[in-house]
Structures are given as structure tokens and as C-alpha cells.
Specification:
- This is Rhodanese-like domain-containing protein.
- By secondary structure, the chain is α/β, with parallel strands linked by helices.
- It has one domain: Oxidized Rhodanese, domain 1 (3-Layer(aba) Sandwich).
- The chain is built from 5 helices and 9 strands; from the N terminus they run βαβαββββαβαββα.
- The strands form 3 sheets. A 5-stranded parallel sheet has the order 1-8-7-2-4. A two-stranded antiparallel ribbon has the order 3-9. A two-stranded antiparallel sheet has the order 5-6.
- The chain is globular.
Length: 145
């Protein structure tokens, strides 16, 4: 398993603003459409379906087609689990500047449903529901998939 740097939502926002990182939201398309970090791109690690979540077989192909291996990318999801898996896959594929944003968009929850660390949204960071050119449909098209 790769040693992947993890940052808080606030640290992620600072890296985006000050160092030009891109936020890659790996949640499903409906999750992304409901609200995501401003400017984020969406390449789902998994798709929501009738039988639950299923692996997106095009994940790495789309990422490779869109972003160079040295691109500065922060990977985020809902609570930090999918984003760590996506970051590990990207590092294994040769990406060198991948950071995982722990706590995701909403934040992990304890056994009672309470958020244990606020994610991007609950932390009060900028959120939008549409990013021109950022939806998975648009990115897949750009990637020729």
C-alpha cells in the first residue's frame, strides 16, 4: 500500500488556492450533482446502481486520459474511504502528486451517526452543484470514452 498524504478539508482548500491543486471528486454522479467542492471534477470510483455500488471500470482510463502523471490532485469522496482507494490506485498507476482529503465531503460518522470530523460541506467551505466541464459525462467525453 502506498504512503499517501492525507489532509483536512481546510488544508485541501489552501492547496487548491495557493498551489494549484485540482479537487477530484470520486463520489457517484448523483452525489456530485447534489453538491461538491467548488471547481471539483467528477470521476466516480464507483457507480450507484440498483444492486448498490459497483466499481467504475473506466476510472483509471479516464483519469489517465485527462490528467498527466505529475498533476497536483486532491482526491475526495463522501467520508474518506473511496478517496483513499482511488488515491492508492492512482499512485499505483504512476501519479506522483496525489493527496487524499480525509473526511470527504460530509465527514465520517460514528456508530450513532454523529460526524466525527466535518467534511468539506459541514466545514463551511465553498460548494456548488454545477461546475462547467466538471461532470463525469463531460469528462468522459473529453477523455474519448
Amino acid at each position: 500500500m502506498a504512503d499517501i498524504k492525507r489532509v483536512s478539508p481546510q488544508q485541501a482548500k489552501k492547496l487548491i488556492d495557493e498551489e494549484g491543486y485540482l479537487y477530484l471528486d470520486v463520489r457517484s454522479e448523483p452525489e456530485y450533482a447534489a453538491g461538491h467542492p467548488s471547481g471539483a471534477h467528477n470521476v466516480p470510483l464507483m457507480h450507484a446502481g440498483a444492486g448498490g455500488m459497483k466499481q467504475n471500470p473506466d476510472f483509471l482510463d479516464v483519469v489517465r486520459a485527462l490528467y498527466p502523471r505529475d498533476a497536483k490532485i486532491i482526491v475526495g469522496c463522501k467520508s474518506g474511504q473511496r478517496s483513499m482507494r482511488a488515491a492508492e490506485a492512482m499512485v499505483s498507476a504512476g501519479y506522483t502528486a496525489v493527496i487524499e482529503q480525509r473526511a470527504g465531503f460530509e465527514g465520517p460518522r460514528d456508530a450513532f451517526g454523529a460526524i466525527t470530523e466535518p467534511g468539506w460541506g459541514p466545514a463551511g467551505l465553498p460548494v456548488e452543484t454545477a461546475t462547467p466541464g466538471g461532470s463525469y459525462a463531460e469528462l468522459r467525453k473529453s477523455a474519448g470514452r
